[in-house]
């Protein structure tokens, strides 16, 4: 969880902007809600010193000082590079300097590296073997520094990277091309992840790209859908808006701790599609405390009715369920089913426990059911 500069600032990002975002993450409560990484994307890079060490450009200056500023606020700093001679935006990449750059990043106090294949396309044929070798080279270099650095790969999901990304030492890998701030882009990337669940879990995450929430291209219902979908999958939550100017609706979505708790559930179980009801996808996810999260996602262009009998979730629910709505923040009386209307491109996200069950007994009953 954290923030990345690209969606809002792109190549305009400066060290002053990064400091401002770090301050805003504290003042808005985002840090306390779990958003801890402040990630600088492309265009921070300058030239190399005669010794070969990478230097920042005039927009950024002293990167160690920037890391210290971020760390002093209880946050972590992320940075960007590429296995090519240049990055996507044409700045200095890490090709031939992997060990040197990894040591430099560690010395600065970097906690996260986004490594984008872009520039390497100009050097090597685009094959899985070349990508694996180049990503593995930086993965080994980061490991050798001895500093814990989250390693995130970006190459648009080529060659089914979810099947082999973890072999490079990476923790996170993009499974899609870049996201845009519109409904089609967001929904295509999000729902695509349902096929990739078997390759995702603690320490090795599929990444459908950053959140667009607050950038203004779609409605609050649609942004609420992105937050719900990324959380139930689960996927990294990296905000991509200007945190200094968030309106109340944006804050309400990004800071919904009940939804964040779904994303951060320690089991890391993937969501699955239980059924499709016309334009409504019914997604379910088993949680560490034995509850089940159910999301009714309306992908259609008009309001849609959805219904579900709780016994569809398993024998534990035959006597009914206690239902908590994660967006309305209300717990409903025990019931045997759900019937509701889902707004266009909207979502209803519910956390379900068997009627009368405690969290411990729910977990125990789940384990017994799985054995049976």
TrEMBL record:
Keywords: Disulfide bond, Glycosidase, Hydrolase, Signal. It is an enzyme of class 3 (hydrolase). SUPFAM superfamilies: (Trans)glycosidases, Glycosyl hydrolase domain. Its EC number is 3.2.1.22. The keyword DNA damage does not apply. It catalyses: Hydrolysis of terminal, non-reducing alpha-D-galactose residues in alpha-D-galactosides, including galactose oligosaccharides, galactomannans and galactolipids. This is Alpha-galactosidase. The lineage of its organism: Bacteria, Pseudomonadati, Pseudomonadota, Gammaproteobacteria, Lysobacterales.
């Amino acid at each position: 969880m954290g923030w990345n500069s690209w969606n809002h600032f792109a190549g305009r990002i400066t060290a002053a902007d990064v400091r401002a975002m770090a301050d805003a993450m504290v003042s808005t409560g985002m840090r306390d809600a779990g958003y801890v990484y402040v990630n600088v994307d492309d265009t921070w890079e300058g030239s190399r010193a005669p010794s070969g060490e990478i230097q920042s450009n005039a927009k950024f200056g002293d990167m160690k000082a920037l890391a210290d500023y971020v760390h002093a606020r209880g946050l972590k700093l992320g940075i960007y590079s590429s296995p090519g001679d240049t990055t996507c935006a044409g700045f200095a990449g890490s090709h031939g300097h992997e060990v040197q750059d990894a040591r430099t990043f560690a010395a600065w106090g970097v906690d996260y590296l986004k490594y984008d294949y872009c520039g390497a396309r100009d050097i090597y044929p685009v094959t899985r073997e070349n990508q694996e070798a180049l990503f593995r080279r930086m993965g080994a270099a980061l490991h050798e520094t001895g500093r814990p650095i989250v390693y995130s790969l970006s190459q648009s999901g080529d060659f089914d990277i979810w099947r082999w990304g973890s072999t490079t030492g990476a923790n996170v890998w993009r499974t899609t091309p870049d996201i845009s701030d519109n409904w089609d882009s967001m929904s295509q990337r999000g729902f695509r992840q349902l096929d990739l669940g078997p390759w995702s879990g603690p320490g090795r995450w599929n990444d459908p790209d950053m959140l667009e929430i607050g950038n203004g291209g779609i409605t609050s219902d649609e942004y609420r859908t992105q937050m719900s979908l990324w959380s139930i999958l689960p996927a990294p939550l990296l905000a991509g808006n200007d945190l200094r100017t968030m309106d109340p609706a944006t804050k309400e979505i990004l800071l919904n701790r009940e939804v964040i708790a779904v994303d951060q559930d320690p089991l890391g179980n993937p969501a699955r599609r239980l059924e499709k009801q016309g334009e409504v996808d019914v997604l379910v996810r088993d949680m560490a405390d034995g509850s089940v999260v159910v999301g009714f996602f309306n992908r259609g262009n008009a309001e849609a009715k959805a219904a579900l009998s709780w016994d569809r979730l398993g024998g534990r629910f035959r006597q009914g369920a206690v239902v908590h709505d994660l967006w309305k923040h209300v717990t409903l009386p025990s019931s045997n089913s759900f019937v509701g209307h889902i707004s266009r491109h909207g979502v209803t996200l519910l956390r379900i426990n068997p009627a009368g069950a405690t969290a411990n007994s729910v977990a125990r009953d789940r384990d017994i059911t799985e054995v049976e």
